[in-house]
Amino acid sequence: MGSRVFPRSLALVVALAVCATIAVVLVLGTVDPWTPKIGLFAGGADLHVYRDGGWRVLHGLPLYSGPVALGLLYTYTPFSAIAFVPLERIPGAYVDNLWMVVNLGGLAGCILLCWRILGYRLTPCLLVVTALTTVTCAFVEPVRTTLFYGQINLVLMLWVLWDFSRPERSLLRGVGIGLGAAIKLTPAFFVVLLLALRQWRAAAVATSVFAGTVALAWVVVPRDSRRYWTSTFFDSTRIADDAHPSNQSLRGTLTRLTDGQAPPWLWLILAGAVAVAALVVSVRLYERGERLLSVVLGGLTAAVVSPYSWSHHWVWLVPLLVYVMHRAVSGSGRWWFACAALFASTAAWPYWWSPNVIVVGLFLYPPSWPVAFLLQNVYVLVYVPVLASAIRMVTRPAQSRPTLTSVVTDLPAPEPSEVPLRSA
After folding, report:
1. Residues 129, 13 contacting (CB under 8 angstroms)
2. 4 in helix, strand or coil?
3. Phi, psi (5° rounding) for residue 410?
4. Which residues on adjacent β-strands are paired with residue 354?
5. Pick from 76, 145, 143, 150: which is nearest to 110 by CA?
6. Of all helices (H) and strands (E), which one includes residue 97?
7. Counting Cβ atoms within 10 Å, is residue 407 exposed (0-12), middle (13-18) or buried (19+)?
8. Cα 22 to Cα 17: distance, rounded to the nearest angstrom
9. What is the pLDDT of residues 348-372, one digit of tens each?
10. Neighbour-count burial for 250-264, b at 16+ CB within 10 Å, e otherwise
11. Where are the alpha helices (DSSP H) in 184-258?
12. What is the distance, to the nearest Å, from the Cα of residue 12 to the centroid of all Cα atoms in its chain?
C-alpha cells in the first residue's frame, strides 16, 4: 500500500469543486453539445470507424483498400479491427453513450493510477479529489477531443499507467503496453523506455504480447496483415498534411515554421536527439523516485517525436496535471500557478470562425493573428519547459530521502507542508 496520505483540506476540495463546475459550464456552454460536427454529443466518428473495422473482419471485407465508415480511411493495425469486434456487436443507438461512459471511467482510472504511482493511499478524500479532477479535465482539449471523436487514447493510457503502477517483479507488467501498441503503435515507445530502465522482463512481456497479436492477426486476416505491414504502415499520406495545425508534433512544427521546406533528415536528427535526451532524463527521474514524471515524460515525448500527432494524442497532459497538483499539495503553493498555466494553455477553448463554423483548440485559431505561430505549436511549446524542468531536476544534487523501489512498497514518507480534427 502507498504511504502518502492526501491532505484533508476543505479549501482544496471547495476549490476543485469550483474548477469542476466551471469546466462543466465551459464544456457544455461554450459550444452547444448537440451542434453538428463539433458538439460533444454529436461526434463519435472514430468510434464508428472502429466498429466498421470489426464489421469488416466479421464479413471478410478489406480494411485498407479504400474508405470505411464516414468515408474515412482505416489507419489502425489489423489486430485492432479484431479487438473492435465487440464494439460492432453493440447496437448503434447505444454505443456512443456507452463509449462516452467508458472514456470518462478510463479518465478517472488514469488519475487514480497516477495517485497510486505517486504512493498515495486510497482514501475517501482522494476519491473525491479524483472525481473532481476528472470532471475538470473534461475541458482539457485532448480529453474533450477524445470524448468527441470516441477515441481510444484514454483507454490506452490507462493500460500503460496500469503497467507502471504494478511492482517491477510483477509477471503482468508489460501486458498493457503490449496491447496498447498492438492497437495503436504509439505506446510502443514505452517498450524502449522499459529497455532504457533495464526492466528486461517487462520489456520482454510487452514485446511478446505485441508479437502475439501480430501473429494472431496474420492468422485471422492474412491479406490485411500483409498489406498493412508491407505497404499501409509506411504510407504517411493516409493521415493528413504534415503542416496541418492539428499535427502537434515536432515534424508538424518544423513543417509549419519552414513552409514545408525543412528536409526530412532534419526532423529525423531533431526527433532522435529529443527522444534520446528524454529517455536519459526519464531513467534518471525513475532512479530518483520520480516515477510518475518519468512515465509522463515518456508519453509526451512519444507525441513529440511521432511523425504525426493529433491533438488528442496529448492526453498525457492529464497525468502531468496530476503530478503538478501533487507538487502543489506536498510542497510550495507556487505549483498551483503551474497548474493554472498548464490548464489554460491546453484547454478546449472554442473559436467561432463564423456563425456556422466552430473550432476547438488554440492551435486552430486564425492564422492571421500575430501570435498564430505560437498557438499553432502550443503543445510542443508546453513540452519544452517540461523537458527543461525535468533536466534541471536530474542534474541538481539529489535530496536526501529514501529511494523508491516499488510503486507499492518502500515509498517515501509524505513531505511537509482543437475545423473539427481528424484522428489517427
Report:
1. yes
2. strand
3. 55, 40
4. 357
5. 143
6. helix 92-117
7. buried
8. 9
9. 999 999 888 899 999 999 999 999 9
10. bbbbbbbeeeeebee
11. 189-196, 200-220, 222-230, 250-257
12. 26
Both ends of the chain: CA-CA distance in Å?
Answer: 38
- Give the Cα separation of 386 and 364 in Å (integer): 23
Q: What is the pTM of this model?
A: 0.91
User: How distant, in Å, are the alpha carbons of 10, 187, 351, 412 from that of 110?
Assistant: 24, 15, 29, 22
CA distance 306 to 424: 12
For the record, the C-alpha cell of 309 comes out as 500527432
Query: CA separation (Å) from 284 to 193, 233, 344?
Result: 12, 33, 29
Contact 81, 74 (CB under 8 A): yes
Distance CA 126, CA 244 (A): 40
Which residue stretches of 30-90 are H helix? 45-59, 78-83, 85-89
Where does residue 174 rank: exposed (0-12), middle (13-18), buried (19+ CB within 10 A)? buried
- Closest residue by Cα to residue 298 from 280, 279, 317: 279
Report how far apart, in Å, the C-alpha atoms of 38 and of each of 55, 135, 360, 361 are: 26, 20, 8, 12
Question: Of 137, 115, 204, 164, which Cα lies nearest the Cα of 298?
Answer: 164
Q: Average pLDDT across each block of 10 residues of the chain; the chain has 424 residues. List them in order.
A: 82 96 96 94 95 96 91 93 95 93 98 97 95 98 98 98 95 97 95 97 98 98 95 74 91 93 92 97 97 98 94 97 95 89 97 90 94 96 97 82 41 41 44
**Helix (H) or strand (E) segment spanning residue 350:** strand 350-354
Q: How many residues does the chain have?
A: 424
**Residue 403: how many CA atoms within 13 Å on its side-chain side?**
7
By the 10 Å C-beta count (0-12 exposed, 13-18 middle, 19+ buried), 234 is classed as: exposed
Backbone angles phi, psi at 353, to 5 degrees: -65, -35
